[in-house]
Design goal:
heterodimer, A: mainly alpha, MetI-like fold, 2 domains, 15 helices, globular, B: mainly alpha, 79% helix, transport (chain B), transmembrane helix (chain B)
């Protein structure tokens, strides 16, 4: 490692570098002790070791592992066998089909908090209260949310009682293979829309109010204002919410599935993350689980690279 | 703008309904936790006339929630303390010390942010088993630190980037070493960000089930959330006790939310606005 002052460095957050004159600190650094020069290394070493050892290394290990066999073929190179097994496994195919369903439901999961944030921003009666109330379920564990909805969605539970009062149902929310995945995704959206709402509100806070006033003066209707003023000005926020919501759907529904359906009924609520867990924890097929992990990672990579792009662009705009 | 005002009032009705739908599940659960089994079977919706703590006490003592609770408190406290220490050290170095490769390193940490736990869980479980860390407090704490450190570093780096360099220079002129600047200047200045990131990390760790389920298999080491999942099978015919267990696990989060809502929201939105 060279002297601490060597070379120009850009601001780490990717923003325009703040004006930093060659100051006393820089001069001191140059003739500083060895301990001083090694300071960045000392401060960063524990974090780098942990991240490299327990996040990056396992990732490589897992990808490598996915090309080996389970059971009798433990440790042997089996090429793409695990991936072929995945493609022929009805449970994994259901998991992939459910990912497709999540992608289709994604616009709904983004539009709901977006619309609610718009109304809160436009100061509907009670707007001060709503933010705090809506955000609340987002801090609860999926386990708690799932446990509560086990009670609410029971066949003889409150929701069916309410619907019965309206002359509908009863619906077997968690017992019908055609309904259960929608019930679980619905609960996930209920539990997390507050997260996206808060992000949208932070975006609204950066909105130029004079543009909105101009739209008002021009007599624009509410849908026109949303479509022509709000959506274009918040495009960055909307992209961010899209990506984070998708990542949330792919990686934070395990608790709900584990508590609410256990993947059932008839395997209809499997998602890739649940499949990985079952193969690793229950079926003792770690190599197959690794292949499923790698498949999930490929799905995530597409989403994640998009997110890095957005974050970096966001940094440049500041 | 009477039209807009009308729209606002029309929108207010479904929004109020949604607010009720957001609150009701927890109210229902609290109400059930106060009932006897008989009351629950006869009428699950009526409000209990008396506050009965029997179920809560039962869940806390004989069901074993107190043990799970203690496990969670220990693991979460140690994880958050380590995350804040290592995260602020790294954040300060990345934001305010100049060294070769700092932006590359930052990008590497940003990349680690996008490795979901599900993708590394199989090899991680093997590493933990090989090193004898599986089913131990240090193993789970280390796993939590590894999981949430990239996010912590990311937020603290962007926070420390906003600290004027003059402050650091002044402290250096006063004779502080780099470590002195970190300990005496950066830690106190970072307090608001540390609080926000700390609360958020505490929530993540407290709410986690997958990591804990994977790395803490034995019953005596269960964290609270895994404890709640185990209640479900055991007490499927005793719903009030089950609801009490859920309530015990939810109350600390509820309290944290009432007092620290702004910090939690700040942490969630930081990634979207700061970049």
């Amino acid at each position: 490692m060279g002297p601490a002052t060597a070379g120009p460095t850009e601001d780490t957050a990717g923003r325009a570098p703040a004006p930093r004159p060659a100051t006393a600190s820089a001069r001191r650094n140059r003739r500083g002790s060895r301990a001083e020069r090694l300071a960045p290394l000392v401060l960063l070493a524990p974090a780098i070791l942990i991240i490299a050892g327990l996040r990056l290394w396992p990732l490589l290990l897992g990808i490598n592992f996915s090309f080996t066999g389970d059971g009798a073929r433990n440790g042997m190179n089996v090429g793409l066998d695990n991936y072929l097994t995945l493609l022929h496994d009805p449970l994994f195919r259901t998991a992939l089909r459910n990912v497709g369903l999540l992608v289709l439901l994604l616009p709904v999961a983004v539009a709901i908090p977006g619309l609610l944030a718009t109304f809160i921003f436009l100061k509907v009666p009670g707007h001060r209260l709503y933010r705090g109330v809506y955000f609340f379920p987002a801090v609860l564990s999926p386990v708690i949310v799932g446990a509560i909805f086990n009670l609410l969605l029971a066949f003889d539970g409150p929701l069916n009682a309410l619907l019965g009062g309206l002359g509908i149902g009863p619906v077997d929310w968690l017992g019908n293979p055609d309904v259960a995945i929608f019930a679980v995704v619905g609960v996930h959206i209920w539990a997390t829309f507050g997260m996206a709402l808060v992000v949208f509100l932070a975006g609204f806070a950066t909105l130029d109010s004079s543009v909105l006033d101009a739209a008002k003066v021009d007599g624009a209707s509410l849908p026109q204002t949303i479509w022509h003023v709000i959506i274009p000005s918040l495009s960055r926020t909307i992209q961010f919410v899209f990506v984070t919501t998708m990542i949330g759907m792919l990686t934070s529904m395990f608790g709900l599935l584990y508590v609410m359906t256990g993947g059932g009924p008839a395997g209809s609520t499997y998602l890739p993350e649940y499949y990985v867990w079952i193969q690793q924890g229950q079926m003792n097929q770690p190599a197959l689980a690794s292949a499923a992990s790698t498949a999930l990672f490929l799905i995530m990579l597409v989403v994640g690279l998009g997110q890095i792009g957005i974050l970096r662009r966001a940094g440049k705009e500041d | 703008m009477s039209g807009t005002r009308l729209t606002r009032w029309v929108a207010a009705i479904p929004m109020a309904a949604l607010a009720l739908a957001t609150i009701y599940p927890l109210v229902f659960t609290t109400n059930v936790a106060m009932k006897t089994r008989r009351e629950y079977v006869l009428d699950r919706f009526s409000l209990t006339d008396s506050l009965r703590w029997d179920n809560i006490v039962k869940a806390w003592t004989s069901v074993g929630m107190s043990r799970y609770f203690l496990n969670s408190v220990v693991v979460v406290a140690c994880s958050v303390a380590l995350l804040l220490l290592l995260g602020s050290m790294a954040g300060f170095a990345l934001a305010r010390l100049r060294f070769r490769g700092s932006s590359l390193l930052f990008l590497g940490i940003l990349a680690a942010l996008f490795i979901p736990f599900q993708v590394i869980m199989v090899p991680l479980a093997r590493i933990m088993a090989d090193t004898g860390l599986i089913d131990t407090y240090p193993g789970l704490i280390l796993a939590y630190v590894a999981q949430f450190l990239p996010f912590t570093i990311f937020l603290l780096t962007s926070y420390y980037s906003t600290v004027p360099p003059d402050i650091i220079d002044a402290a250096r002129i006063d004779g502080n070493s780099v470590y002195g600047v970190y300990w005496r200047i950066m830690l106190p200045i970072g307090a608001p960000a540390l609080l926000s990131v700390g609360v958020l990390n505490a929530l993540f760790c407290w709410n986690d089930v997958l990591i804990s389920l994977l790395l803490m298999p034995s019953a005596e080491h269960r964290t609270l959330m895994v404890g709640v999942t185990s209640l479900r099978g055991q007490y499927s015919d005793d719903i009030p006790t089950f609801a009490s267990g859920v309530l015990i696990a939810a109350v600390p989060v509820l309290v944290a939310y009432l007092f620290l809502q702004r910090q939690i929201a700040d942490g969630v939105t930081a990634g979207s606005t700061k970049g």
